[in-house]
Amino acid sequence: MYSKLLSEVFLMTESTAARFHKEMTVGEAIAIHPEAGLVFSSYHLGGCSHCSINEVETIEQVCMGYGVEVDTLIDSLNNLFADDEG
After folding, report:
1. CB 63 within 8 A of CB 74
2. CA distance linking residue 26 with residue 36, whole number of Å
3. Handedness of CA 15, 76, 38, 21 (dihedral sign)
4. CA distance 19 to 17
5. Can you give the pLDDT at residue 76?
6. Rounded to an integer, what distance in angstroms lies between the CA atom of residue 65 and that of residue 53?
7. What is the pLDDT of residues 21-67, one digit of tens each?
8. pLDDT band for position 1 (50/70/90)?
9. What global pTM score does this model have?
10. In this structure, is the dihedral angle defined by the CA atoms of residues 67, 77, 75 and 27, taken in order, positive or negative?
11. At the top level of its lineage, which domain of life is listed (predicted)?
12. 21, 31, 47, 66: most buried, per Cβ within 10 A?
């Protein structure tokens, strides 16, 4: 599944680059951008052995489980693309 997703991501042009959304799984998010895991960690999601996150959960599910505002996390993730463009 992840290799298929990765190959689709590499085929996308900048104008059609995938963006993060709350229905996306954590695994898909990490596959889309190499620094997505750092963003999750900055919100204390998946950074510790006792608070690991499951890659098959959606971003929204993870946020609900840990009390993180989903729109704030999505904005932070999507800023990764802005950083790439600038």
Report:
1. no
2. 9
3. negative
4. 6
5. 96
6. 10
7. 999 999 999 999 989 999 999 998 876 655 667 889 999 999 999 89
8. low
9. 0.73
10. negative
11. Bacteria
12. 31
